[in-house]
Write a structure and sequence with these properties.
The chain is of the alpha/beta class. It is about 30% helix and about 25% strand. α2 crosses α3. The radius of gyration is 18 Å and the shape is globular.
């Protein structure tokens, strides 16, 4: 996504890539992103080791799994009484797995465009994972008590359509948890 404002400042250069920030809306974007050539194939390399024991070496893998358990606990405490969740861009599905196993969620569903991560989630964790973009999944309206989207919204081409779809899928009094990076944070 790129804003239409004219006043921009270069923040950083990494070889051919330049990060720029709009001085009006503060959106940060890359000069190398082209929505006409975007492909889900870029995420295959990211999840290339999913079929093995873990994505990371043992120590780091343990920390990642503990972080996902903590994230599941955070969701559980934020939405007490919820029993259904949709996690958009569910990665390997660890948070969904923990919510289902330890926190009473009877329906834990994810979307994941990486076939390797989706396969891991389905085969190793037994989760309901849709290997497609949220906008293409045929969910019924008002299907979920809670919808989470962790560090995904900044990757989509039309975030406003995602927000509209999330609104359609949330049950009345449902909750949405959105986390995006803060470029100004350490």
């Amino acid at each position: 996504m790129e804003c239409l404002h004219e006043n921009r400042e270069d923040l950083s250069h990494y070889g051919e890539v330049t990060l720029q920030q709009c001085q009006q809306c503060k959106l940060v974007f890359s000069n190398k992103f082209d929505s006409t050539t975007w492909s889900k194939d870029i995420y295959q390399e990211y999840y290339r080791n999913e079929i093995s024991a873990g994505r990371f070496r043992f120590g780091l893998e343990l920390i990642v799994r503990l972080f996902r358990l903590f994230r599941a606990y955070k969701v559980y405490t934020l939405v007490s009484g919820a029993t259904s969740i949709l996690d958009i861009g569910s990665g390997r599905g660890l948070m969904l797995y923990y919510l289902k196993k330890y926190f009473g969620f009877y329906r834990a569903v994810g979307t994941q465009i990486s076939s390797l991560a989706a396969e891991f989630s389905r085969k190793k964790l037994g989760l309901e994972i849709w290997e497609m973009d949220l906008l293409d999944v045929p969910f019924e309206t008002k299907s979920f008590d809670v919808i989470t989207i962790w560090h995904v919204l900044e990757h989509v081409i039309q975030p406003e359509k995602y927000i509209q779809r999330i609104h359609q899928l949330l049950k009345d009094n449902g909750k949405v948890v959105i986390e995006v990076p803060n470029f100004d944070s350490w």
